[in-house]
Amino acid sequence: MVGAMSEDRQTGRQDRSGFEDDVAEATFAPSSPAESGSPASDWLADEPVVLAAIPQVADPSPIGWLARRRHRLQRWWRGASHNLRGSVYMMSALLVYAVMVGSIKHVGGVIPLVQILLIRQIIMSVIIVAFSAGSLGPMLRTTRPGLQVVRSVLTLISMLCGFTAIIKIPLAQATAIGFSQVLFVTIAAVLVLKEVVDARRWAATIIGFAGVLIMLRPSGDGLDLYAMMAVGGAVFGAGITVSVRMLAATERTDTILIYQGLVLIALLAVPGWLFWVPPTTEQWLWLLVLSLFGTAGQWLITRAYQVGEAAALAPLDFSRLILASLTGFVFFAEIPALSTWIGAAIVIGATLYTIRKNARPLVVPTASA
């Protein structure tokens, strides 16, 4: 689905400003030669007036109103900046992901996670192939199959850790800890991509990890295992980010996703069969919902970063914490602890600083005259 769908870029704009006037003229036009007092031939020349007898034209108020709103929305969309369009895609993705995460938490207590991920990946892969528009051959063509497999394995581990945390601990806490992924990306970029990180970014990273520790709430009994799994999801999520950066130069988005599907289905097939729990009709519905919403969310967030600038969109990602808190409170009666909010504020502040530093263009020295 990602890479096969594209934004509608029609540039023609239909002007409906005279539509109501045309209908008014048709309404008050004479209906017979006798009423008009003109010859029949002249009356026949005005034959198009009988279009007023068509219900859609005679009473245009409902269709005309919807059409006007639609065209106004289209004009607004075409005139919107790239970052505004990207923001719309991003917020839509976050809303969609909120439904997916809530669905996983709902069925995760009775359906094994490996089974959920297997069903989700099968449905996602089928959708990607269905929207490939006959380009399955080019989609499967890759110059870096080894890295594709590595990225897919990292994705599986990240989902197993992150979704287990979502099922077992409050949504707000799992979501807030997940924001530390940007901090782990900084470390991975230094170790793997050999990027240079200045002292300020290192300081922001250390402060961010302090916020993570606050949310983990270490005690004499040690750290919460499931909170640590949320950290693990962020660590392997950072590995996904770095691997995608390495693949971006040569690989298509749909190629990355289809290889992810093939590898994950192969890895999950046996454990999914061994731990299979027959879902009820209601559970199948939730599994279908989380699969469809997960696919839609992946497309929307990919589209957002294709349209808008990463530095402008990334801060919107923190609204996930609000959505997660509301979802957890309304549907699962979860109330985030004060330590979660304090730690989240520290992590978000450190992450925003890191994002702004990453967004600054390099200053290229100019030759002196």
From TrEMBL:
UniProt region (Disordered), positions on chain:
1-41
Biased composition, class Basic and acidic residues, residue ranges: 1-19
Task: List where the protein spans the membrane.
Answer: 88-107, 113-137, 149-167, 173-193, 202-219, 225-244, 256-277, 338-355
Renumbered to this chain, the Low complexity biased-composition regions fall at: 29-41
Q: A Pfam family this protein belongs to?
A: EamA
Tell me where in this chain the EamA domain is found.
85-216, 227-354
Instruction: Alphabetically list the UniProt keywords.
Output: Membrane, Transmembrane, Transmembrane helix
Q: Which GO terms describe its cellular component?
A: membrane
Read off the InterPro entries from this record: EamA_dom, EmrE-like
The protein, known as:
Permease of the drug/metabolite transporter (DMT) superfamily
